[in-house]
């Protein structure tokens, strides 16, 4: 269970996230919605550790993550899909995914300097990387340099890297932003697949209400940094606070 308690951040006099307390259970996809500037990305940044909270706590399975660096939170099981800034752009797609698989297994699978075990580890890593590339429909691109990938394939690779890390929690911030009509369904399919694994917790920041309606088991609404609604999608979407605070500003997307 991922939990935030009174999570708060102030920028100068502005409270961007205001005492948000919420729990996210395994087997649940929660969509976080709200108008532009509501604090959704900032809330994500506080959970993943990109921003330091002014007050409040974050914990995963009872273990406090508050104060931990983002990398330590990743090791603890928080996985966030990021733009490809932390990739090796001149290595191939396969090599990048293999390195992510290796990073996850290092420490648990280290078996000393035995040539056979190094070789068989390498074979296992490549096999797992291969499996993930098939899952995200990137197998055809495995030998391409990451820097040469079109935008949609880069976003798929982000998901591939996330899967390689085997997190307990998957965090997606507008995963289909900037994608064309052919690319977006691939990412949404991947999220649907991840949902099948009932041990995973999925958080999704998403503006497109049709996507939210289809994927979310639960919706929470942020408005001016405050949690203003939380519940079943149909109920939350129909609530006056959402109609007014959110759908009112993006009726086109909600239609
Ligand atoms: N580093 C920062 N310094 C100062 N203010 C910030 C910073 N990051 C975010 N903010 C402010 O915090 C508020 C919340 O921003 P945030 O990006 O989290 O909103 P959002 O709900 O994700 O919006 P959008 O839907 O447009 O992505 C905004 O008023 C924003 O200007």
From TrEMBL:
Domain ABC transporter residues, every copy: 2-249
GO molecular function, one term: ATP binding
Signal peptide as annotated in the record: none
InterPro entries for the chain: AAA+_ATPase (IPR003593), ABC_AA/LPS_Transport (IPR051120), ABC_transporter-like_ATP-bd (IPR003439), BCA_ABC_TP_C (IPR032823), P-loop_NTPase (IPR027417)
CDD domains linked: ABC_Mj1267_LivG_branched (cd03219)
Alphabetized UniProt keyword annotations: ATP-binding, Cell membrane, Membrane, Nucleotide-binding, Transport
Protein name in UniProt: ABC transporter ATP-binding protein
